[in-house]
Amino acid sequence: MKEGKSKNNRLNNILKDLNGSDENKITTAIKQLRKHGNAKVIEPLLDKYIESKNDIIKEDITSLLFDLKDESAVPELISVMSKAKFIKIKPFIISIFWQAAIDSSNHISILVKEAIKGDYMTCVEVLTVVESYDASFNEEEIEDLKFDLDEAIEEADIEKQKLLITIKSVLENLNIEY
Question: What is the pTM of this model?
Fold first, then answer.
């Protein structure tokens, strides 16, 4: 019990430094999160990423997130992706899945829908993520997504149309469970 409380206190102190204004403490906190962090620190890291004007802090956060390699981060990333405060960095958030090589295939529907409603860069990042999938998918889910893509392709501008068509093509080549 005491060890769990100690870990919580350590994490709370690290987050306090992360949310402070001392850039040296922020940089140290990011380094400490590599060892002592968990999926729950993703949102505070992204908050700091948006808030910070310091390129070194942004690079340190990017490096940490791209090195996650922890599947337990997937639900948290999916959750923060839908928050309005992160709309401007949504492509960056999506890129974490492929940069960190973490499997988001259970959330393919959410990601493809983000490509459909998102901007060009969101679409690019979703394409990159979907291209990396090596899982098997439910036939009905994939067919529904292809139908949604067909509708979106008709309405999209020419550049986004090309990306959506490519995403559809990738979906057609995924492993399907019948």
Answer: 0.93
